[in-house]
C-alpha cells in the first residue's frame, strides 16, 4: 500500500492544503508539503480543484447478505459504497438469518473485512426475527467482536411501546441507540404511496403522514422518560420535522436522518406507475421535500443516510402493487447533498461533511471514522470535483432499481481513500479492496 501525498486539495473550510498519508494515517496537513512528507516512494496525486472531505459514513445500508445475495452481497454493496465516497456503512439487520445474534453480526463484520472497501458495521435487530415480540440478544451483540451500538428492526416498526421502552432501557447501559422505522402498521395496511391528491387520482391505497408522525411522537417521549438515545430512520414529512424540532428543544436525545430520495423526488413520480419509485416510507409532496431540506440546513435533521435497498429485477419490473419497496442510493448521495446544500447556496462544505461523515460516525459510535482532516486522523477521505456533473447511469450495485437513472446531478467522486488505500482513483473503482 503506497504512501500518498494529495497536492492542492480544498479543505471543507475553503483552505488549500496538501495532505500527507503514511500507512492508514494522515501525518501532515499543510501548504507546500514535499513528497517525502508522506515517507519514501509516496505517490503524488494532483487534487487541484477537488474538495477533500472526511470519508462518508452511511448509517442505513441494506447489504442483503446473508440470505438475499441475488439482490446484493457485502462485496458488491461495499464497492458501490466506495464509488459513492463512503468509507463506512452500517449494514441493516433484515437479512436471512436475521442479524439478531452475536454469531450473525460477527459473520457480517468478517465478510466486510474480507471485502476491504469500507468498514462494514453490523446493525443488530431490536427483536428476535424482526417479529416485534421479544427483545433480541442486544447485550451479546454489543459485547461481540462486532461491538454493535446501533439496533433497528428497519423494514418493520417496533410498534409495541412496552417493548420499545425495554429496548431503550437496555441500550442505555452501553450508550447504544435504537434506530426506529416509524410506521404505525395499522394505519398503513395495504398502503402503496403517499396519501394525498396523487394517490386519490391513481386509485392507490394511501400512506398517511400521521402513520410516521405518531410513532415519532411516542418514541421521543419514551426516550425522554428513559433518558436514552433514539434515532429516527428516513424521516419523510414536514410534520415529522416539527416533532423532532420540538423534541430537541426539550433536550431529548433524538437524532434523525433523511434519505437522498426524500430530498429530491416527490409522489408525482408515481403517475408513471414505474415501481422504481415505490419506497418505504413513500415519496411525499413537494412541500415535504422543502421542509426536509430546510431542516437539514438548520440542523433539525442530523444526517443524510441512503437507505440503499437493492432488489432483483423481477421484484421491481412488475405491476406497482406487487413490487417491492426500496431503491438504490449509495452512489448518488454526495451528488444530491451537493445540489441541496452547496449548489442551492443554502449551506457549505462543512455542513455537508457534518451530515455525511462527522454526525453519522458519532451516532454510530465509530471512533475511527468521521474524523477531522488533520495529522493523526485515520486516512478515510473522499475527494470530489464540484464542477463536474454526470448523467446517472449504471452503478456498481448488483441491482438496478435506481430511480436516478437519466438524471443529471452535480459533482463527481474522483478519489476515495479508505484507511490509506485508494478504493477509487481518478473515478475508477479499485479491482481489489484494501485487504
Overall description:
The chain is built from 12 helices and 19 strands. The protein is an alpha/beta fold. It has a 5-stranded antiparallel β-sheet with strand order 5-16-17-18-19. Strands 9-10-13-14-15 form a 5-stranded parallel β-sheet. Strands 3-2-1-4 form a 4-stranded mixed β-sheet, with no helix packed on it. Helix 11 (333-343) crosses helix 12. The model has no long low-confidence stretch (mean pLDDT 97).
- Can you summarize the main beta sheet? 5 strands, antiparallel
Name the CATH class of the largest domain: Alpha Beta
For CATH, the homologous superfamily of the largest domain is named as Metal-dependent hydrolases
Which CATH architecture of the largest domain?
Alpha-Beta Barrel
Q: Oligomeric form of this entry? A: single chain
SS field, number of helical segments: 12
What gross morphology would you assign? Answer: globular
Spatial sequence of strands, sheet with the most strands: 5-16-17-18-19
Spatial separation of the terminal alpha carbons:
10 Å
Mean pLDDT metric: 97
The domain tally reads 2
Portion in strands: 15-25%
Low-confidence stretches: none
- Report helical residue fraction: 25-40%
What is the β-strand count? 19
Structural class computed from helices and strand pairing: alpha/beta
- The CATH topology of the largest domain is TIM Barrel
The Rg value, from CA coordinates, equals: 21 Å
Amino acid at each position: 500500500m503506497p504512501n500518498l501525498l494529495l497536492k492542492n486539495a480544498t479543505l471543507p473550510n475553503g483552505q488549500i492544503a496538501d495532505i500527507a498519508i503514511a500507512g492508514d494515517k494522515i501525518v501532515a496537513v499543510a501548504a507546500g508539503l514535499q513528497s517525502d512528507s508522506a515517507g519514501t516512494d509516496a505517490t503524488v496525486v494532483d487534487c487541484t480543484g477537488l474538495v477533500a472531505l472526511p470519508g462518508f459514513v452511511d448509517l442505513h445500508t441494506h447489504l442483503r447478505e446473508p440470505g438475499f445475495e441475488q439482490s446484493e452481497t457485502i462485496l458488491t454493496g461495499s464497492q458501490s459504497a466506495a464509488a459513492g465516497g463512503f468509507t463506512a456503512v452500517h449494514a441493516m439487520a433484515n437479512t436471512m438469518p436475521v442479524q439478531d445474534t452475536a454469531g450473525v453480526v460477527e459473520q457480517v463484520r468478517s465478510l466486510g473485512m474480507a471485502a476491504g472497501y469500507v468498514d462494514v458495521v453490523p446493525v443488530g435487530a431490536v427483536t428476535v426475527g424482526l417479529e416485534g415480540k421479544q427483545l433480541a440478544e442486544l447485550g451479546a451483540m454489543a459485547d461481540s467482536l462486532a461491538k454493535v451500538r446501533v439496533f433497528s428492526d428497519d423494514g418493520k416498526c417496533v410498534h409495541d411501546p412496552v417493548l420499545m421502552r425495554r429496548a431503550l432501557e437496555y441500550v442505555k447501559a452501553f450508550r447504544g441507540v435504537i434506530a426506529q422505522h416509524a410506521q404505525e402498521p395499522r394505519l398503513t395496511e395495504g398502503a402503496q404511496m403517499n396519501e394525498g391528491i396523487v394517490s386519490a387520482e391513481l386509485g392507490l391505497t394511501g400512506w398517511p403522514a400521521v402513520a410516521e408522525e405518531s410513532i415519532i411522537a411516542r418514541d421521543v417521549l419514551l426516550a425522554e422518560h428513559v433518558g436514552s438515545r433514539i434515532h429516527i430512520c428516513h424521516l419523510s414529512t414536514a410534520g415529522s420535522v416539527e416533532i423532532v424540532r420540538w423534541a430537541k428543544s426539550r433536550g431529548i436525545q433524538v437524532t434523525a436522518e433523511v434519505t437522498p430520495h426524500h430530498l429530491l423526488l416527490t409522489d408525482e413520480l408515481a403517475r408513471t406507475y414505474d415501481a422504481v419509485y415505490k419506497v418505504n416510507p413513500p415519496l411525499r409532496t413537494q412541500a415535504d421535500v422543502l421542509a426536509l431540506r430546510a431542516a437539514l440546513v438548520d440542523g433539525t435533521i442530523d444526517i443524510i443516510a441512503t437507505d440503499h435497498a437493492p432488489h432483483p429485477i423481477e421484484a421491481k419490473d412488475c405491476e406497482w402493487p406487487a413490487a417491492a419497496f426500496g431503491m438504490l442510493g449509495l452512489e448518488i448521495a454526495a451528488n444530491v447533498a451537493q445540489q441541496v446544500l452547496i449548489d442551492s447556496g443554502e449551506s457549505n462544505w462543512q455542513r455537508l461533511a457534518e451530515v455525511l461523515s462527522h454526525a453519522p460516525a458519532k451516532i454510530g459510535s465509530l471512533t475511527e471514522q468521521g474524523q477531522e482532516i488533520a495529522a493523526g486522523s485515520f486516512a478515510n477521505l473522499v475527494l470530489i470535483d464540484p464542477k463536474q456533473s454526470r448523467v446517472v447511469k449504471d452503478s456498481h450495485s448488483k441491482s438496478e432499481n435506481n430511480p436516478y437513472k437519466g438524471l443529471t446531478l452535480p459533482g463527481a467522486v474522483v478519489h476515495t481513500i479508505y484507511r490509506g488505500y485508494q478504493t477509487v482513483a481518478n473515478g475508477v473503482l479499485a479491482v481489489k479492496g484494501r485487504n
